[in-house]
Amino acid sequence: MSTNGSVIRIIIDGKEYLSRSGVYLIDVARENRIFIPTLCNISGVKPRGACRMCTVSVNGRYMTACTTPVSEGMEIKTNTPDLHDLRKAILEIMFVEGNHICPVCEKSGNCDLQALAYRFQILVPRFPYSFPKRTIDAENPLLVKDHNRCILCKRCIRTIKDEQGRSFFAFRKRGHKLEISIAHHLKDHLNKEIAQRAVDVCPTGALLKKESGYNIPISERKYERTPIGSEIESLKQSVIGDQ
Amino acid sequence: MERKKTIVATASLAGCFGCHMSLLDIDERILSLIDLVDFNKSPINDIKNFTEYCDIGIIEGSCCNSENVHALKEFRKNCRILISLGECAIMGGVPAMRNGIPIRECIEEAYMNSPSVKGHNPEMILPNDPELPMLLDRVYPCHEIVKIDYFLPGCPPRADLIYSALEALITGNEMKLPYEIVKYD
């Protein structure tokens, strides 16, 4: 096995690429303008492999691209019909598992979950809706937590931290009652700037900032005209065009 | 020989009529549609009962009471193809926001406790006429009640999406689904 950092050769979708060993597969793909859909992953933060959206086939086995470091000789397929259907099914499960009512959500149009569903053109989920009973918590003066929309990706917990590295958010309760909470001992330190970062890092409308909303006109929202991931793929086209 | 026109029926169950409005948003294309389509039972022409077997039934809204369920089953019986139009028909939409709340609490809020009725219902009467349809325990998406053949999401579905679906069904060509027309809001 090659040591971390040595140059290795891998094959993605039939094409050969050079990379350094030990780099996460998702980052290698992104650098090479290959879009692998993700929800729980954030660049630069330790991956969790929670949502399974980035599942790819590595030498015939399904693995999450965000937690898999590349190594010599890997043969990766990122977009087979089976993988496409698997990812679509995962998205559909997320939609039926919570109460995602897009018409009344402030995040609509800027929501990663919705944008992926648009990209996969989900017209209706194949699973029955579960309509779980969830609460909305507006206790914090700056943030509203809507547990109906939370997909438990842990992005807020993993990224929004104070200067000592303590998380502003945490999980509470267990099993199907699991939900995010704002850490009590830190809530006085939660300022507007941190609240905004938390809202931005949330892939759905589960965290919303109070006293603002619907700031962006409908036609200018993030995923209005271009699908999620096209920023990665469009670079690919321009690079090819330059050559 | 004149080609037989496609017969379309529409209904609005637990919805806001926004999807029907969006159908009218196809603008001047409605003229070419009229050449291809005849409307049967629909709120657009106010025909109350089916007068013949229809080719396409378009359902807006979800099922929140017994009358909605009855109407939906009538549509299934009288239409060859049924389409769920809009978020409410597909997933319950805004009406489904009551799904986590007990019915008694919903009705008491609407007729006794909300600020707009407080003081105007001194005898605290809840609607109890036997003619009124019964509310269901929760709001049901249409495909959980009857078989639905096609789904057109949106709130409302974009006019282009509705037109493109009708055109594809009538002409038998494959439906075009560009990114911009499949939206959930």
Give structural notes:
The complex is a heterodimer of chains A (243) and B (185). With 243 residues, chain A is α+β, with helices and mostly antiparallel strands. In chain A, 25% of the residues lie in helices and 16% in strands. Chain A has 6 helices and 10 strands; from the N terminus they run E-E-H-E-E-E-H-H-E-E-H-E-E-H-E-H. A 5-stranded mixed beta sheet of chain A has the order 2-1-5-3-4, with helices on one face. In chain A, strands 6-7-10 form a 3-stranded antiparallel beta sheet. Chain A has a two-stranded antiparallel sheet with strand order 8-9. Chain B has a single domain, classed as NADH:ubiquinone oxidoreductase-like, 20kDa subunit (Rossmann fold). Chain B contains 6 helices and 7 strands; from the N terminus they run E-H-H-E-E-E-H-E-H-H-E-E-H. The longest helix of chain B is centred in the middle third of the chain and has 13 residues. The model of chain B has no long low-confidence stretch (mean pLDDT 94). The interface between A and B is medium-sized, with 27 and 27 residues.
Largest pleated sheet of chain A:
5 strands, mixed
Strand order of the largest sheet of chain B: 2-1-3-5-7
User: Which CATH architecture of the largest domain in chain A is right?
Assistant: 2-Layer Sandwich
**SSE series of chain A:** EEHEEEHHEEHEEHEH
User: What is the number of helices of chain A?
Assistant: 6
CATH class of the largest domain in chain A: Alpha Beta
CATH topology of chain B: Rossmann fold
DSSP, total strands of chain A: 10
Most extensive interface: A-B, 27 and 27 residues
| Overall number of domains of chain B | 1
| CATH fold label of the largest domain in chain A | Alpha-Beta Plaits
